Amino acid sequence: MTRFLVINGPNLNFLGRRSPGVYGTMTLQEIEAQISRKASEMAVAVAYFQSNSEGAIIDYIQEKSAEAQGIIINPGAFTHYSYALRDALADSRLPVVEVHLSNIHAREEWRSHSVIADVARGQIAGLGWRGYIAALEILAALVQEEEKGK
Ligand code: DQA
Description:
Layout: E1 3-8, H1 20-23, H2 28-42, E2 45-50, H3 54-64, E3 70-74, H4 83-92, E4 96-100, E5 122-125, H5 130-148
Parallel strand pairs: 1-2, 1-3, 3-4, 4-5
The structure holds 1,3,4-trihydroxy-5-OXO-cyclohexanecarboxylic acid.
1,3,4-trihydroxy-5-OXO-cyclohexanecarboxylic acid (DQA) binds next to loops.
């Protein structure tokens, strides 16, 4: 069964109460439940991880990548400066989709730059929790297509 890692970075454990006007009113658990619903329809397995710590996220990527076919990640503020996370994603050699709930291109200027973007297949930003669902569908299609092409 295809298996994806869904990783959320710092402060995303506070979704629901954190700037709801920007990030929406759903909690991370509610978003994960929506992802799981979609994943079971698609017969895809999903493993979730959230941490406020850069090292814990990197350890998770290093430990779990061998058992996975792709990564969906919202790196939170690490998006904008974590070269260590960028390198861990690149070293995983897995297809990565970067997700942001808010439109990082329409906010403070420093948010519009992602150091992750060039190691990701693509980025989905500004579409709220549905961005994760879109990422799941697109990643599954890409992996399936690439498997066929082998
Ligand atoms: C975010 C955008 C980041 O700039 C911010 O630091 C976050 C959340 C988003 O989902 O819109 O923590 O990644």
